[in-house]
Amino acid sequence: MSGAGELGNVLSLNRRQEEITEAYYDTEARLTALKTQEERLLAIMEKAETLDDIIRLEDALSDVRYQIESLSGTMRRYDNLVEMATVEVSLREVESTTSVSGTPRTLGERIGQQFSESLRGLGRFCEGVLVFLIGNLPVLLVIAAVAVGGALVGRKLWRRKREQSKAE
What we know:
By secondary structure, the chain is mainly α. The chain is built from five helices and no strands.
């Protein structure tokens, strides 16, 4: 990021960072508490005597295990965030540089500026036409060959028709 200005003109540079330390420790504490709760539920389940108690304890244990899995996934995501950084680079080419010289005040300055802009626009137009013609040259050659062939065939047909009408 510090060397970006050496490669070209930096128009915009944004940095964003996210502090996850507090959320990490909160999640770690909740995970520890849930694991303790799981151990207690398992200990109580060993002493349970009725089927109804066992079913209720299994439901509670299932809920605690779901929360443990969810928080464990969150902890893995936090660990990955700590190990990695994401860098996004967006580049745009500047077609032409312009000097900032205030707005023209006199009529002559305004005419000169408009004339320069017209010439630049005409140059860009001619450049675009040249790129189009050269880029599409193979297609244009095929179209020209078909047109010339069609014109020759049409001319022969027209001559034959004219000769037939003279013969009659």
